[in-house]
Design a protein that fits this description.
- By secondary structure, the chain is mostly helical.
Length: 294
């Protein structure tokens, strides 16, 4: 999120968090989180804001910048339809980046931070990872937006708008919205499903703004049964450093203990939970007898 949008959005974030907290305070039957868990989420976000100042020195080149420089097309940002097209295209790119976050372990090492809370409220929205090595490759998902001629600054701005849109849908206080809205847009109900660690909700509803991508590509699930928030294997810590790096450390450990390059690469690029197939040892009866003269 750009610094300007962050400064404008920060007061609204704080007000909405306080309103949601007050709602739970006066409605104890609908438990939406704890002070300790919310403090962890906010701490991770604030540490991330500091880390953002150093990330620019760790990425040697801009994948999107190279794509913008190579494309022969350049759309005019003064045309309204360019903004409409850009919003749809960048949201489409976000869908695939978000899907990759869940299907490539290196990216999951970062994204799992956002899913690590066993609560679901507006403070969960700001539980975002920082300084996870290698996760910058997800920016390649927006190459199509650059190749069609969108200016680089517009891509970044539309990415930020998409993130702003997702902040208020991290809540249990809003039920289902009218059917046309639920069919087209990502809503609190759809995003509660996305944060579920129980089937049939696991790895569903990757949408940013438009839920139609999930409907089109087979990753949609409707909220029908209670959602269990968190990870399939939850971590028992509120330390922001441990929360931020827990999955990355586990990934590195798996790579170190792997015995083949296939297993090492699998622990990095295969889906979370992937394990190499054990090498089958032939049974004694399957071994050919060796003759004295052989």
């Amino acid at each position: 999120m750009s610094n300007g949008l962050f400064l404008y959005a920060l007061p609204a974030f704080v007000v909405l968090m306080l309103v949601e907290w007050a709602g739970y305070r006066f409605d104890p039957d609908r438990r939406g989180g704890t002070i300790r868990d919310s403090t962890t989420s906010i701490s991770i976000y604030l540490l991330g804001r500091v880390a953002k100042m150093f990330e620019r020195f760790l990425v040697p080149f801009s994948i999107l910048g190279a794509a913008v420089a190579l494309t022969p097309w350049h759309l005019n940002p003064h045309e309204w339809w360019v903004w409409a097209l850009g919003l749809v295209v960048t949201d489409f790119c976000y869908y695939w980046a978000h899907r990759a976050d869940h299907r490539i372990r290196l990216l999951w090492a970062g994204h799992s931070v956002h899913h690590s809370s066993q609560q679901f409220n507006l403070t969960t929205a700001v539980r975002l990872p920082w300084l996870i090595p290698g996760t910058f490759i997800r920016s390649a998902a927006w190459i199509p937006a650059a190749l069609i001629g969108l200016p680089l600054w517009m891509i970044f701005l539309l990415q930020s708008i998409g993130l702003l849109y997702q902040f208020p849908i991290h809540t249990q206080r809003i039920g289902k919205l009218p059917a046309p809205i639920e069919y087209i847009f990502n809503t609190p109900s759809h995003h509660r499903v996305h944060h579920g660690s129980n089937n049939p909700y696991l790895d569903k509803n990757y949408a940013g703004i438009l839920i139609i991508w999930d409907r089109m590509f087979g990753s949609y699930a409707e909220e029908l049964e209670p959602v269990r928030y968190g990870l399939t294997k939850n971590i028992d810590t509120h330390n922001p450093l441990e929360v931020n790096y827990h999955e990355f450390v586990r990934m590195i450990s798996d790579v170190r203990h792997a015995h083949t390059w296939r297993a090492r690469l699998g622990h990095i690029f295969a889906p979370p939970g992937w394990t190499p197939e054990p090498v089958a040892t032939p049974h004694a009866s399957e071994l050919e007898p060796v003759g004295v003269g052989d």
